[in-house]
Write a structure and sequence with these properties.
This protein has 266 residues and is mainly alpha-helical. The chain is 63% helix and 3% strand. The chain has 9 helices and 2 strands; from the N terminus they run H-H-H-H-H-H-H-H-E-E-H.
């Protein structure tokens, strides 16, 4: 894989994109790991522990690409930045909530990953094309798991339906922050780096709305003239580093051991 970008490509905008991907995966992986030892059944305890490891591994893939292009190591990016310098969306930073919320967050994120990584398969950036092909194979298993849970829990019992509907009401507006416009995104679209977050969001809606509806869950959208219109405001701000205190707490936990011995070799 090439370790430098073509001079004709918008370098800073691409770096912004890569960093947002790495930060999203890092924070979601950390939140998922909080279920280790606390999931409602052993099978899900193991599943979410594995998913957390995968998400952290995917963040390392993106951080490694960032290092190849900038010289800044994954450890420096994950453990040495202050919390208000991360560019993750707010969605992945919120507390784990109950299991229904975690399942819904994972499902909505997994569908966004599918749409985004498929878009990268046609990117003008060689590195994005190569990485997306590798990550899609693992992400497919994440989606299979989270989608299956949503479908089963959505209309399994009155109680499970209530929990999952509450999860939709909370997580759906938050998840729209995954598609917040990046700094330099117009350059990325023009250079055919990817199709842009709005296009990916529309593909995502075409996937998640039918699944949630089939699971008897109400989604705050309208379907007009063959496309979906949102009836809620997106929880944006993360891409512009406008975070809540939830991220500060998360980063404090994440960096705690590293701060004790920052030059240690593990």
């Amino acid at each position: 894989m090439a370790t430098e970008l073509s001079p004709s490509l918008p370098r800073q905008a691409i770096l912004n994109l890569i960093l947002s991907l790495a930060d999203d995966e890092l924070m979601l992986g950390h939140r998922d790991s909080e279920w280790t030892g606390h999931s409602p059944i052993l099978e899900e305890d193991i599943a979410f522990s594995n998913i957390a490891q995968d998400e952290l591994g995917h963040s390392l893939v993106w951080f490694t690409l960032y290092e190849q292009l900038t010289g800044r190591s994954p450890d420096a990016m994950a453990f040495e930045r202050p919390w208000n310098e991360f560019t993750c969306c707010r969605f992945v930073t919120y507390p784990r909530g109950d299991f229904g919320y975690t399942v819904m967050r994972q499902y909505l994120f997994d569908e966004a990953e599918q749409a985004r990584l498929h878009a990268f398969g046609h990117s003008s950036v060689e590195q994005l094309r190569e990485i997306s092909g590798k990550l899609l194979r693992e992400e497919a298993y994440h989606l299979l798991h989270s989608k299956g849970l949503v479908e089963r829990l959505g209309d399994a019992t009155e109680e499970s339906h209530r929990h999952m509907q509450t999860a939709v009401d909370e997580a759906f507006p938050q998840s729209l922050g995954l598609f917040e416009m990046l700094d330099g995104e117009e350059e990325l679209i023009k250079a055919e780096v990817f199709s842009g977050n709005n296009a990916i969001k529309n593909q995502w809606l075409s996937r998640v709305v039918p699944v949630l509806t089939t699971a008897t869950l109400n989604v705050p959208v309208s379907h007009v003239n063959g496309s979906y219109s949102l009836n809620v405001k997106a929880d944006d701000g993360g891409r512009r580093k406008l975070h809540t205190q939830h991220l500060k707490q998360l980063v404090d936990d994440l960096q705690q051991v590293y701060r004790i011995a920052p030059v240690a070799k593990w």
